[in-house]
Specification:
about 200 residues; alpha+beta; 2 domains; 6-stranded mixed beta sheet; 8 helices; elongated
Length: about 200
């Protein structure tokens, strides 16, 4: 089929791909709106009209997106921004694997709507690193073997970060309380306690 006989209709998928943006689930880049206005495509416009524009800061970078009301923050981070360090484990707000820090507080991103993060500052486990250099908290989890299988580790690390941000020198009891919203299927709670204790020392050094 030559160029003259190809269909001229533009699918939503090809439109977004052509703009260099990604459509995963229910999110698109807000800058795509300008280009979309120039294309007479009912399917694309219908998708854009049913979403809500949001602006948030993720790991120091401003992000603008259009999301459906049902889109969770975890989905936005993983599927749209490709920050896959945030794990969706139980997807029921119980295990803490999806924990990120929003405006300084640890939250379950699987139970937080992306729309509720509008105007907020989000920090994920990737944002702790300085280039390829690990944050002292991440180093401590490695040194004390607090990571074990690693699946719950990002959530553990982010809860610990929020804890140490508010209380740089917590007691063991305060650490246990602060980390109580995060489950470890390897039952490495002693190692996690040691990791947070060691991280507190590193961050004060």
């Amino acid at each position: 089929m030559d160029e003259k006989t190809k269909p001229q209709s533009i699918s939503r998928r090809h439109f977004l791909k052509g703009l260099g943006t990604g459509l995963v689930g229910s999110s698109i880049l807000l800058p795509a709106l300008g280009a979309a206005d120039q294309i007479d495509n009912a399917q694309v416009k219908e998708f854009l009209e049913k979403g809500e524009p949001i602006t948030l800061t993720v790991n120091g970078q401003k992000v603008r997106a259009i999301v459906e009301s049902r889109t969770t923050l975890a989905s936005l981070l993983r599927n749209y921004l490709h920050l896959t360090g945030t794990k969706i484990v139980c997807n029921n707000g119980e295990c803490g694997g999806c924990t990120v820090v929003m405006d300084g507080k640890a939250i379950y991103s699987c139970h937080t709507l992306a729309m509720d993060a509008d105007g907020k500052e989000i920090l994920t486990v990737e944002g702790l690193m300085d280039g390829e250099k690990l944050h002292p908290l991440q180093e401590a989890f490695v040194e004390e073997d607090g990571l074990q299988c690693g699946f719950c580790t990002p959530g553990q690390v982010m809860s610990a970060y929020a804890l140490l941000r508010d209380n740089p020198q917590p007691t063991d009891e305060q650490i246990k309380f602060g980390m109580s919203g995060n489950l470890c299927r390897c039952a490495a709670y002693k190692e996690i306690l040691d990791s947070v204790r060691t991280a507190a020392g590193k961050m004060q050094a």
